[in-house]
Specification:
Blueprint (H helix, E strand, L loop, with lengths): L1 E6 L7 H9 L4 E4 L8 E5 L2 E5 L11 E4 L4 E2 L1 H13 L5 E5 L3 E2 L2 H14 L11 H9 L12 H22 L10 H17 L3 E2 L1 H10 L4 E4 L23 H6 L5 H6 L1 E7 L2 E3 L8 E2 L16 H13 L12 E3 L1 E2 H11 L3 E5 L9 E10 L2 E3 L6 H5 L1 E9 L6 H7 L6 H14 L3 E5 L7 E3 L6
Parallel strand pairs: 1-10, 1-11, 2-5, 2-10, 5-7, 6-8, 7-9, 11-16, 15-17, 16-20
Antiparallel strand pairs: 3-4, 12-14, 13-14, 17-18, 17-19, 20-21
Helix pairs in contact: 3-4, 5-6
Bound molecules: inosinic acid (IMP).
The site of inosinic acid (IMP) has 20 residues, from α4.
Length: 453
């Protein structure tokens, strides 16, 4: 069977930790979208591993697959594999031949276009994600399979690279270097291809996964980013360029919707909200310069700023990939209702409950006031979302406790007020709680339900 893990908010919900806990029962862990814009930290035997591309299961001896829905930067891939090998691991990573390759010009153009877009900039990770998906949709991309086929590769590059060079030079007025040079890129790609072939890393993803399932293996499908960053269901244009929602798990892995839908789909929720990048955020607390629209630290509410800083520091809300401080806010229920519907969640894992401990009161945005109308889910346009004002329900806070002990003792040991908070969310979404995260290590997860069992 399959278990699909989907971020229900704006990324950074702690998916890596849940994948890690549930992944124990999995034989194969698959990423189905995104690329090295994701960042996850896996803590294993006291060792911290920061990964952005290699599926976290690879740290635990699982087969890690980058599905056809991913965009793969071979530089990052090899760097991460080499890093893990240096630390004594032998990661087994496979890459779909249908996945698209992030090339140096994609990264260069991501930076150039972000600077150009000004207010429309999504605050991307500048990893070349958007430009690579653009080329995929524009049918001018280079796929992993092409790296192993020198003639096709040459043909693709000769078509696309002069266009990219002209774009950078003539539209954006930049000078270009070897990142836009066909011969240089061709040699580089051949090297990538040789290594992929030598290490027998490439697979026909859907066929490979179906064969594993037919042989009785358990497959975990690991989404990156989150629902509100989904290109279709997120807060366009402040989104990533792929589908983190569960539909993406089928398209991006090559397994049919029946296979994914017959499995479990676990929505990962952070107990509050965090956001990297720009765009509206109705339940935001305080602000971050350069990210929160219209934010002025001079006129900001001091108490709110203090609360935001507390949550940011307690939760370590600084980007894994970029180190940028993240914007923070209260839990947004309309956002979660939207996510639960879009992905058919069968269970919830609610994380970072420990971060909120010690606060006198905790709030949840339960609905929006949209020009006097009550909305229970997110409106379809981001401009409408920006006009929404959150209506809050206040909950009594819970004390700081020994969370490691709580994790050991199980759900009943969670402070009463925290349980009220958790159960409110579960009832509102009509989705049962499968796990509660009370700390960063995988031991600090209270497991109520194992979806593979
Ligand atoms: P891109 O995916 O680099 O194109 O960035 C598009 C938007 O998605 C930006 O707002 C990023 O900050 C956001 N984003 C991309 N990956 C992540 C992630 O793993 N966590 C949180 N935000 C992300």
């Amino acid at each position: 069977m399959t278990v699909t893990i989907v971020g229900s908010q704006l990324g950074d919900e702690g998916k890596g930790g849940v994948v890690d806990v549930y992944g124990d029962a999995a034989d194969v862990v698959v990423r189905y979208q995104g690329g090295d814009n994701a960042g996850h930290t896996v803590v294993s035997d006291g060792e911290k591993y920061k990964l952005s591309l290699v599926p976290s299961g690879a740290v635990r001896g699982k087969v890690g697959v980058l599905g056809n829905g991913c965009v793969v930067n071979p530089e990052t891939l090899f760097e991460e594999i080499d890093g893990l090998r240096e630390r004594g691991l032998e990661p087994d990573v496979r890459v779909a031949e249908r996945a698209h390759v992030i090339l140096p010009y994609h990264r260069a153009l991501d930076g150039i276009e972000e600077d150009e877009k000004e207010d429309l900039a999504a605050g991307t990770t500048k990893r070349g994600i958007g430009p690579t998906y653009e080329d995929k949709a524009g049918r001018r991309g280079v796929r992993i399979g092409d790296l192993l086929d020198p003639d096709t590769l040459r043909e693709r590059l000769e078509y696309v690279v002069p266009q990219k060079k002209a774009l950078a030079e003539e539209v954006f007025g930049k000078t270009t270097d070897e990142r836009f040079d066909v011969d240089h890129l061709y040699e580089l790609c051949l090297e990538y291809g040789e290594r992929l072939a030598d290490e027998e890393m490439t697979v026909d993803c859907g066929t490979y996964l179906q064969e594993r399932i037919d042989a009785g293996d358990q497959v975990m499908l690991e989404g990156a980013q989150g629902t509100s960053l989904d290109i279709d269901h997120g807060v366009y244009p402040y989104v990533t360029s792929s589908n983190p929602t569960a539909g993406g798990a089928t398209v991006g892995s090559g397994l049919g919707p029946g296979v994914v839908g017959n499995g479990e789909i676990v929505g990962i929720v952070k107990g509050y909200l965090s956001r990297v990048g720009t765009g509206p955020l109705p339940t935001e607390l305080g602000g971050v310069e350069g990210q929160t629209p219209g934010y002025d630290p001079e006129t900001a509410d001091e108490a709110e700023e203090e609360l935001a800083t507390y949550i940011r520091d307690e939760g370590g809300e600084y980007g894994t990939v970029t180190g940028r401080p993240r914007r923070v806010g209260w839990l947004d229920l309309p956002m979660l209702r939207h996510a639960a519907r879009a992905s058919s969640f069968t269970g919830l894992a609610i994380n970072h409950v420990d971060v909120l401990a010690g606060l006198e009161e905790v709030k949840i945005g339960v609905s929006y006031d949209f020009d006097g109308e009550e909305l229970l889910t997110m409106p379809p346009t981001t401009e409408q979302w920006a006009r929404c004002e959150a209506t809050f329900e206040t909950f009594e806070g819970w004390p700081e406790v020994d969370w490691a002990e709580v994790a050991e003792d199980g759900y009943d040991a969670i402070p009463e007020n925290a349980k009220t908070y958790l159960e409110f969310v579960s009832d509102e979404l009509d989705v049962p709680i499968y796990a509660v995260g009370v700390g960063p290590g995988r031991e600090e997860t209270v497991v109520l339900e194992d979806p593979f069992a």
